[in-house]
UniProtKB/TrEMBL annotation:
<dbReference type="Pfam" id="PF01063">
    <property type="entry name" value="Aminotran_4"/>
</dbReference>
<dbReference type="InterPro" id="IPR043131">
    <property type="entry name" value="BCAT-like_N"/>
</dbReference>
<dbReference type="InterPro" id="IPR005786">
    <property type="entry name" value="B_amino_transII"/>
</dbReference>
<dbReference type="InterPro" id="IPR033939">
    <property type="entry name" value="BCAT_family"/>
</dbReference>
<dbReference type="InterPro" id="IPR001544">
    <property type="entry name" value="Aminotrans_IV"/>
</dbReference>
<keyword id="KW-0663">Pyridoxal phosphate</keyword>
<dbReference type="InterPro" id="IPR018300">
    <property type="entry name" value="Aminotrans_IV_CS"/>
</dbReference>
<keyword id="KW-0100">Branched-chain amino acid biosynthesis</keyword>
<dbReference type="GO" id="GO:0009507">
    <property type="term" value="C:chloroplast"/>
</dbReference>
<keyword id="KW-0028">Amino-acid biosynthesis</keyword>
<dbReference type="GO" id="GO:0009082">
    <property type="term" value="P:branched-chain amino acid biosynthetic process"/>
</dbReference>
<keyword id="KW-0808">Transferase</keyword>
<protein>
    <recommendedName>
        <fullName>Branched-chain-amino-acid aminotransferase</fullName>
        <ecNumber>2.6.1.42</ecNumber>
    </recommendedName>
</protein>
<comment type="similarity">
    <text>Belongs to the class-IV pyridoxal-phosphate-dependent aminotransferase family.</text>
</comment>
<keyword id="KW-0032">Aminotransferase</keyword>
<dbReference type="GO" id="GO:0004084">
    <property type="term" value="F:branched-chain-amino-acid transaminase activity"/>
</dbReference>
<dbReference type="InterPro" id="IPR043132">
    <property type="entry name" value="BCAT-like_C"/>
</dbReference>
């Protein structure tokens, strides 16, 4: 069977004969989706060998994969991941949001990590196939989305420290709702002063798998103390904002929106970029620059952005024992505005003047 997939400017035929689409309706509590793994029907796998060229991939039933104990990813952390979402429109069709941006970011990360990577076209095609094969898991409009998790890993065996002789690109999917347990309510962050997330010249600016385990210690401590997550400072001065464990940060003061600039130690978030563009289109002044922790504490409003967290308002920040509450200052006006503009676009409820969505028929 061939399925038509149209993007902003193209229509591509996807061969979907490799899988048998399940037709039974998914029995899931769509009203209470969180950000926990719900295994779906299929995953996509594509490999490349030493020539660096990815051959045609395939859909397989979702499940465990075989990996050499000597693989580059297990031994030396040679791995990258991405995150993007598919949304169901009211007419039942499905929209992807800026998948090419994830493809480009993976290619950028692969270059930094000496890995071969799929082309933008291969990446996007694979995402579309994964969504189509799992389309019964895309939540109804407004109830959540299907989260796609592309992985790129050094799967070839080796002993010394060097690039892997083989790479595997894999995508799995899970329906998701809110990332934080607070739901859409404001989150409470604590500023981490002892454990920086990234250092200049390191890999903080790419989506390397190794960027995430090191944040877990600070995150665990924060959660034990009742906080939702951790906000990291720059490792040089311990003064400027970097990012939260899984999202970017924005502060608002006197209607001016500021966010840390991209300089190699924070992730160039696709939601971050989209929110900047949306806010500017709505008439806000948005500054990408070094933002100090003092400015954070003096802000009118603070919010986080990310594929998983979407746009999450921050209710309080605690820094060196001092807690600042934003709710008393009328939290959330700007974040509500950009959240609404972004999600209406993603769900196909507003006209996509930006050309960011890609419809899968
Ligand atoms: C995403 O927002 O997609 C992310 O990659 C965050 C993830 C660490 C949960």
């Amino acid at each position: 069977m061939a399925t038509s997939v149209s993007g902003a400017s193209s229509t591509i035929q996807c061969d979907t004969s490799a899988y048998e689409e399940a037709v039974e309706t998914v029995e899931l509590d769509w009203d209470n989706l969180g950000f926990t793994l719900v295994p779906t029907d299929y995953m996509y796998i594509m490999k490349c060998s030493e020539d660096g060229i990815f051959s045609e991939g395939e859909l397989r039933r979702y499940g465990p994969i075989e990996l050499s104990p000597a693989s580059g990813v297990l031994n030396y952390g040679q791995g990258l991941f991405e995150g993007l979402k598919a949304y169901r429109k009211e007419d039942g069709s499905i929209l992807l949001f800026r998948p090419q941006e994830n493809a480009l970011r993976m290619r950028m990360g692969a270059e930094r990590m000496c890995m071969a990577s799929p082309s933008v076209e291969q990446f996007v095609e694979a995402v579309k196939l994964t969504v189509l094969a799992n389309k019964r898991w895309v939540p109804p409009t407004g109830k959540g989305s299907l989260y796609l998790r592309p992985l790129l890993m050094g799967s070839g065996a080796l002993l010394g420290v060097s690039p892997s002789p083989e790479y595997t690109f894999l995508i799995y999917a899970s329906p998701v709702g809110n990332y934080f347990k607070e739901g859409s309510a404001p989150i409470n962050l604590v500023v981490e002063n002892d454990y920086p997330r990234a250092a200049p010249g390191g890999t903080g600016g790419v989506k390397a798998i190794g960027n995430y385990a090191p944040v877990m210690k600070a995150q665990k401590k924060a959660k034990e103390n009742g906080y939702s997550d951790v906000l990291y400072l720059d490792s040089t001065h311990k003064k400027y904002l970097e990012e939260v464990s899984a999202c970017n940060i924005f502060v608002v003061k006197d209607k001016i929106i500021s966010t840390p600039e991209i300089k190699g130690t924070i992730l160039p978030g696709i939601t971050r970029r989209s929110v900047i563009d949306i806010a500017r289109a709505q008439g806000y002044q948005v500054e990408e620059r070094a933002v100090s922790v003092e400015e954070l504490l003096d802000a009118d409003e603070v919010f986080c952005t990310g594929t998983a967290v979407v746009v999450s308002p921050v209710g309080s920040i605690t820094y060196l024992g001092r807690r600042v509450e934003y709710e008393s200052k009328g939290v959330g006006a700007v974040s509500r505005e950009v959240y609404s503009a972004l999600t209406r676009l993603q769900m196909g409820l507003a006209e996509d003047k930006m050309g960011w969505t890609m419809q899968i028929n």
